[in-house]
């Protein structure tokens, strides 16, 4: 018999995609910090070129920023976090288009799990129309992707960034 145990909290990481950063940043960052607490890491902008999926809605060129937060959070908050980020996308949008795309997820010692509103065969339903997407797995001291992992998360640049965040997370877990 397995004995249920509360898992370690996760490192909240939000990927932000957008082309017109001057229209929403740093105000969006401040709003995220009001909700989730102080940011721990805020990456520089880097190019998002793996797909043109968002081009029509967000404009081009699309750039990405990763933001992680100081406070570790219970993993069962993921659906509520995605619901909140969806409301931000809608509120900041204009003329039926979003200014940015927010992809929240939890990084743990074992994996990166993103939240999504889209079902697919490998995704696990959480609640309120939100699914958990096992995006990457940590195995043998490196990130391992899956056939369904989005190309931008499967790339070495992203894995290097996530490895740095994982080390920061590991340090936080070891603090009393």
UniProtKB/TrEMBL annotation:
Q: Which Pfam families match?
A: DUF4416 (PF14385)
InterPro entries attached here? Answer: DUF4416
Listed name of the protein: GTP-binding protein
Q: Which organism is it from?
A: Pseudodesulfovibrio portus
């Amino acid at each position: 018999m397995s004995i249920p145990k509360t898992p370690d909290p996760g490192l909240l990481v939000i990927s932000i995609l957008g082309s017109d950063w001057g229209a929403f940043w740093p105000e969006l960052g401040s709003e995220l910090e009001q909700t989730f607490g102080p940011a721990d890491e805020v990456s520089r902008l880097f190019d998002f070129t793996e797909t043109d999926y968002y081009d029509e809605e967000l404009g081009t060129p699309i750039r990405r920023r990763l933001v992680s937060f100081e406070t570790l959070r219970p993993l069962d908050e993921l659906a509520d976090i995605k619901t909140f980020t969806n409301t931000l996308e809608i509120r900041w949008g204009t003329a039926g288009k979003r200014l940015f795309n927010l992809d929240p997820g939890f990084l743990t010692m074992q994996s990166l799990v993103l939240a999504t509103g889209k079902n697919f065969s490998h995704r696990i339903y959480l609640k309120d129309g939100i699914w958990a997407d096992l995006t990457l797995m940590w195995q043998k001291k490196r990130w391992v992707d899956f056939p369904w992992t989005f190309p931008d998360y499967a790339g070495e640049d992203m894995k290097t960034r996530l490895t740095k965040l994982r080390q920061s997370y590991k340090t936080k877990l070891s603090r009393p």
